[in-house]
Design a protein that fits this description.
Strand 12, helix 14 and strand 13 form a beta-alpha-beta unit. The strands form three sheets. The protein has an eight-stranded mixed beta sheet, with helices on both faces. Strands 9-8-10-11-13-12-18 form a seven-stranded mixed beta sheet, with helices on both faces. Strands 15-17-16-19-20 form a five-stranded mixed beta sheet, sandwiched between helices. The chain contains 21 helices and 20 strands. It is of the alpha/beta class and about 575 residues long. It is globular and about 85 Å long. It has four domains: about 180 residues, Pyruvate-ferredoxin oxidoreductase, PFOR, domain III (Pyruvate-ferredoxin Oxidoreductase, domain 3, 3-Layer(aba) Sandwich); about 170 residues, 3-Layer(aba) Sandwich (Rossmann fold); about 70 residues, no CATH class; about 110 residues, Rossmann fold (3-Layer(aba) Sandwich). Helix 6 runs antiparallel to helix 7 and helix 8 packs across helix 9.
């Protein structure tokens, strides 16, 4: 009886692979298992070949595996395309007659699920529900979990539609129970798993709402779009205005305007969209107006691979914009970090009157994991504007007043009697345009030196694991957290540890230097071709890493690939 299974559902775009994985994830979670779901899909609405992969385990999960124990092929192309990725003892569930498959492969389990779909509802559209039932039967999952999951998934449909989906699943379940005799994939149920099933974009959207975001503007760009969709879903409940802008330039300028009016504001995009926002980023820096921007990275340059993953915007995000001004950049590695860091991003943006950026990527954005409930005491909202009550007492207001900290008092225009001047040109304390050299020096030091010094005292400390006893230390940022954790847990005799950076700017130089003391084999793990993190470490600390494990094919690291690469290093010593 296995402790873990990997299930892959593959087919054409539009065949409902994500529906199957959603139903299965809910069902297995109800049965007490931990879940990790990742998506691999092409940039097209119909056709191509996509798959959704589900890991199920009695232990917490953080990353995908390379091989699947069970693969369901919903189309003919998937049969040959995914056969090489089946584990040694794995099977492929397919409909031979439907797709004209004549190969006599011992791994094939022939199931007429398209016929089942027509028997249940008169249409092949219900094949994905039949597939859900088949998978439940093969893994010996109690059917009631599938039935409950289908009711939840199709809760907005009519009772007749829900019944047809359940009937199709029951046909698949009974067929698998009667015809797939071995119990090799039977996985023992535990107590109910009451965790939340959440991906990175879900967490960012909820973090923004928790932080008090009241205006969101964006132009849809994968993989950031579901942040806007999620905020829109709850907009009426939390009084959030969501504006789909005509382009990314309009989006960032609108959130600057909303923020100037006293409203917490955010936008999200991917690298190409952020390139258009860069002038607006500098405008926020000059106006000292707090905004939060999400860059959900995908492979570039230009359009690149729109639905794939990469971490190649690191240098770009840290240095984007003309001129010099303070900013903070977060790089969450889990849904939990994404939620809490989004709240922190809003708090810091307003406290220091700066833009704060959150770097994510397609892998983190679209991968789901079961997580515990968020701690609202940890996600406290901190406001740093002059209150409405105190605004009535303000006289002689200077929007850019020079202070010891570099932080000026920030008032909401409609709340005070004084006129507020704001300008994108260099300006005086009052906000009037100036070319005075002494004022210029004071304002640059205010916007850059003083704020960066304070920001450096609030750095999110790196996460560390087993670094004291390890010979090899992996260092990553963003979505590599999960795969580094699972790999280091798997290395025998605890010879490998990892450091994860959830904040990359201001760079945690002091923390990292302290953590890397002594003789260690240091490797960065990065989803880019230029080893950008290794370069950033060298520039900020003087530490030259011993090597970098890089992946830039548009796919995330899986546990097996990274484990093999790290095992080679730990077996043969320093690179």
């Amino acid at each position: 009886m296995p402790d873990e299974l990997t299930i892959r559902i593959a087919g054409d775009a539009g065949q409902g692979m994500q529906t199957v994985s959603t139903v299965l994830a809910k069902a297995f979670k109800k049965a007490g298992f931990h879940i990790f779901v990742n998506q691999d899909f092409m940039s097209r609405i119909r056709g191509g070949n996509n798959f959704s992969q589900l890991r199920v385990s009695v232990n917490p999960l953080f990353a995908p595996r390379a091989k699947s124990d069970i693969t369901v092929s919903l189309d003919k192309e998937s049969v040959h395309l995914h056969r090489p990725s089946i584990a040694d003892e794995g099977i492929m569930i397919l409909d031979r007659q439907k797709h004209g498959i004549t190969d006599n492969d011992s791994a094939y389990f022939d199931v007429p699920f398209y016929d089942m779909a027509k028997r249940a509802g008169g249409s092949e559209l219900y094949a994905n529900s039949a597939a859900s039932g088949i998978l439940a039967g093969v893994t010996r999952l109690d059917f009631r979990h599938i039935e409950e999951a289908l009711k939840e998934t199709f809760g907005d449909k009519s009772a007749d539609v829900i019944k047809i989906n359940i009937d199709a699943a029951r046909l698949g379940y009974d067929f698998a129970k009667n015809n797939f005799k071995p119990d090799i994939f039977a996985i023992k149920e535990g107590g109910p798993n009451v965790n939340l099933l959440m991906n990175g974009n879900d967490a960012i959207a909820l973090g923004a709402i928790r932080a008090g975001c009241k205006f969101y503007s964006a132009y849809p760009m994968s993989p950031s779009t579901t942040i806007m969709e999620n905020i829109s879903r709850y907009a009426n409940d939390f009084n959030v205005i969501v504006e789909q802008a005509e382009d990314e330039i309009a989006a960032i300028n609108m959130i600057i305007g909303a923020s100037f009016a006293g409203v917490r504001s955010m936008c999200a995009t991917s690298g190409g969209g952020f390139a258009l926002m860069v002038e607006g980023l500098s405008l926020a820096g000059m106006l000292e107006t707090p905004i939060v921007i999400v860059d959900a990275q995908r492979p570039a340059p230009a359009t690149g691979l729109p639905t794939r993953t990469e971490q190649a915007d690191l240098d770009f995000i840290i240095h984007a914009g003309h001129g010099e001004f303070a900013r903070a950049v977060f790089a969450p590695g889990t849904a939990e970090q994404a939620f809490y860091l989004t709240v922190k991003a809003f708090n810091l943006a307003e406290k220091y009157q700066i833009p704060v950026l959150i770097m994510t990527d397609q892998h983190l954005a679209d991968s789901s994991r079961d997580i515990g409930s968020f701690d609202m005491d940890r996600a406290k909202v901190e406001r740093h504007i002059i209150s409405k009550e105190d605004s009535k007492k303000v006289t002689g207001y200077k929007r850019y007043q020079l202070t010891k900290t570099g932080i000026s008092p920030m008032a909401v225009p409609s709340w005070i009697d004084d006129v507020i001047y704001a300008d994108s040109d260099e300006h005086t304390e009052e906000g009037h345009i100036t070319e005075d050299a002494h004022i210029r020096i004071s304002m640059v030091e205010k916007r850059l030196y003083k704020k960066m010094e304070l920001l450096s005292q609030e750095i999110e400390e790196p996460t560390k694991f087993n670094i004291d006893s390890a010979d090899t230390i992996l260092i990553g940022f963003g979505s590599t957290y999960g795969v580094m954790k699972e790999v280091c847990d798997s290395i025998p005799r605890r010879k490998a540890g990892f450091i994860h950076l959830s904040q990359v700017w201001p760079f945690p130089s002091r923390h990292l230097t302290e953590l890397l003391k002594g003789e260690k084999n240091i490797l960065t793990v990065e989803n880019n071709a230029g080893a950008q993190l290794a370069g950033l470490i060298r520039r900020c600390t003087g530490i030259e890493v011993d090597g970098s494990i890089l992946k830039y094919d548009g796919r995330p690291f899986d546990v097996d690939l990274l484990l093999n690469r790290v095992s080679e290093v730990t077996s043969h010593g320093r690179r």
